[in-house]
Amino acid sequence: MPAKDTAKDVQANEEQFIESIKTSLDDAEKLLREAADATGDKAAELRDKAMRSLRRTREALYDTQDALLLRGRQAVRATDDYVHDNPWQSIGIAGLTGLLVGMLISRR
């Protein structure tokens, strides 16, 4: 049951992150449009705000990339540990998977 709760939490976090990125990009776009219409100090101020917004978005994307890489490495490590701890089961799973994929390919 906890795995389902974790999956829901991950999905909620992903949706929140995507909404955050969309909002940030929309704000930056709006500021850049306003800067195009403005002149002088007002335009420079709007461009600076837009650049800060884009910088925050880029940092959030880099943080997410790092988190995904970490999760990927953890998954690889867990899989490697499982294969070393259960070599015969791993061979059986790989063989069965290969058989199923082969059957699916041969049907086409």
UniProtKB/TrEMBL annotation:
Residue stretches making up the DUF883 domain: 16-67, 79-108
Transmembrane regions listed in the UniProt entry: 87-105
InterPro entries listed in its UniProt record: DUF883_C, DUF883_N, YqjD/ElaB
Localization, UniProt: Cell inner membrane
UniProt membrane topology term: Single-pass membrane protein
Extent of the signal sequence: none
Keywords: Cell inner membrane, Cell membrane, Membrane, Transmembrane, Transmembrane helix
Domain of life the protein comes from: Bacteria
Family statement: Belongs to the ElaB/YgaM/YqjD family.
Descriptive protein name: YqjD family protein
Taxonomic source organism: Candidimonas humi
